[in-house]
Amino acid sequence: MKFFWVNLGATFNEVNQGGFLWAPLYSTIERKDGSLRPRTNRHWDVVDEVHTGDIIFCVKDKQITRVAEAQANAYNAERPSTRGFHQWNKEGRRVDVTLRSTVRPVNRDEIAKEFLSRFNEHCDPAVFTQHGTINEIYMSHIGPDAGLYLLEKAGLISAFVDRIVDVDSTRKISKTTREAIILARVGQGEYRTNLMNRWNCRCALTGLQNPDLLVASHIVPWSMSDNDERLDTDNGLLLATHIDRLFDRGLISFCEQGRLLISDQLGPHAQQVFGLAHYQKLAHVSRGTLQYLARHRTRFKFDR
């Protein structure tokens, strides 16, 4: 299952009522000598990558209010009669979809800053401009972590999480294991119990002991892990809530010796407010955890 973003203007009603998305293969551009030449666009070509079961976030008026699910692979189809822009080629690609309303609308301004910092560079093409506005594109292929982030924001994660678990499985998994994997996404269940035991109910960095303020955090995010990694205690750190937030955003990481690394994006004042000067390294680091920490450092470019 892959995730996509589509910008819908006047075509929103067409999608909502007709249950399909469509993009041209190319448009026609007139040269200076009067001759015509075709022009393709990457954000139209992305439509051809949509397959059965893929999820598409539909954006209109700077909000996601519908989430579409592809009912079949994209296929070639002529321009719908409702499209009046005749510079577009009649040949195009169509995806038949079913639509689901979001539990709550996802507003552009609510997500722009976080999406830019965490996901935008991995989208093809980029969804946001560097100024936090939405790029003038039709469709973008976004990563699995961005897809799960948007499903969370839309209040729809529970509607798809079973499928995500099953799709990522290379073997049949029991009902109990599936439930454990789903609970691990929110740092609960067996996953949390194992991390509490490993870290003696203390934050791995600060030593904080209050269970209500401790998060069972994944080093490699749940959305970017396979089912084994989602339950792997080595892929976890028990962290105080504020430390977890910094770690999740890539504002801090840890080197091979478990020593604290601080991103240049976290200024001196913020470091002082969080009291990071008081904490030097993790209490201990297993050999398995080192491999996950290396992936975290790579993801957030600490190794440059």
Question: Main attributes?
Answer:
304 residues, alpha+beta, ph1033 like fold, 2 domains, 7-stranded mixed sheet, 11 helices, 24% strand, elongated
Architecture overview:
The protein has helices at 12-18, 42-45, 108-118, 144-154, 157-167, 175-185, 189-198, 227-231, 241-248, 268-273, 287-299; strands at 3-7, 20-24, 27-30, 36-39, 55-60, 63-70, 75-78, 91-107, 139-142, 214-218, 236-240, 252-254, 260-262. It is of the alpha+beta class and 304 residues long. Strands 1, 2, 5, 6, 7, 8 and 9 form a seven-stranded mixed β-sheet that branches. The chain has a two-stranded antiparallel sheet with strand order 3-4. The longest helix has 13 residues, at 287-299. The chain is elongated, with a radius of gyration of 22 Å.
CATH architecture of the largest domain: Roll
* CATH fold label of the largest domain: ph1033 like fold
Q: Tell me the count of domains.
A: 2
Report the end-to-end length measured between terminal Cα atoms: 32 Å
Helix-and-strand structural type: alpha+beta
Radius of gyration: 22 Å
User: How much strand?
Assistant: 15-25%
CATH class of the largest domain: Alpha Beta
Percent of residues in helices = 25-40%
Largest beta sheet, briefly?
A: 7 strands, mixed
What number is the mean pLDDT? Answer: 92
User: DSSP helix count?
Assistant: 11
